[in-house]
Amino acid sequence: MLYYENKAKKSGFNLIAGVDEVGRGPLAGPVVACAVILKKKRFKNRIDDSKKLSHKKRVKAFNEILEHSFVGMGIVSEVIIDSLNILEATQLAMHRAIVDLARKLKRQRKKQRVPFKKICVLIDGGFFSKAIPFDFINIIGGDSKSKSIASASIVAKVTRDRIMDIYDRIYPEYGFSRHKGYATQQHILAINKFGPSVIHRKTFHPIGCL
């Protein structure tokens, strides 16, 4: 899963960042994006598309990635999702993650003289319109093809799941810790019974029809 990273390095880039997001489909909660630059190639835990890993394996990989990577995060709330649209909100989250990563690299460079002028950003998915200060490559299905993107998908997934676990304690009637805001039958029944909460996306079907 290092084909794209190695190809970018052969093209002259000295740092390769993988970017992915989670949370486009749920009826509630934020969309979360992550940008990751790996400090090593080999990991003890399996690094793959987060959807292919169990919760336990994701958490173990998450901890190892944080220990051996530069990580930037971007979170966009349900309020902004409703004010824009999910595509624009997703791109904004990715942009925030890349900017956050760049800031951390800048601080690290002052400490350890880490070069980051030649960064290539590998982005999971297709079209990306938000202006970023680096060259980037879109990779369809990148979370299964690039270790950097897969790492970003794991960090984004675990981070968002933990956010939804917090919301579950605030709004226990919806069961957010179980479905993470996705449109399960249990979730739809809760919405019909209690109405949408503050963190529900008001423009998403079927909430927008209530």
What does this structure look like?
The chain has 210 residues and is α/β, with parallel strands linked by helices. It has a single domain, classed as Nucleotidyltransferase, domain 5 (2-Layer Sandwich), CATH 3.30.420. It is 44% helix and 17% strand. The chain contains seven helices and five strands. A five-stranded mixed beta sheet has the order 3-2-1-4-5.
Annotate the secondary structure layout.
Elements: H1 3-10, E1 15-22, E2 31-38, H2 55-67, E3 69-76, H3 78-83, H4 86-112, E4 119-124, E5 135-139, H5 147-170, H6 176-179, H7 185-194
Parallel strand pairs: 1-4, 4-5
Antiparallel strand pairs: 1-2, 2-3
Helix pairs in contact: 2-5
Task: Output the strand order for the largest sheet.
Answer: 3-2-1-4-5
How many individual domains? 1
* Terminal-residue CA separation: 45 Å
CATH C-level class: Alpha Beta
Strand content: 15-25%
Q: So, CATH architecture?
A: 2-Layer Sandwich
The averaged pLDDT comes out at: 92
Unreliable runs, pLDDT <50, ≥5 residues? Answer: none
Q: Which fold name fills CATH's third level, the topology?
A: Nucleotidyltransferase, domain 5
Cα-based radius of gyration, to the nearest Å: 18 Å
Oligomer classification: single chain
Relative helix content: 40-55%
Give the helix/strand class.
alpha/beta
Q: Tell how many strands the DSSP assignment holds.
A: 5
Indicate the overall shape: globular
Classified in CATH, the superfamily is: Ribonuclease H-like superfamily/Ribonuclease H
Order of helices and strands: HEEHEHHEEHHH
Number of helices: 7
Largest sheet, strands/sense/barrel:
5 strands, mixed
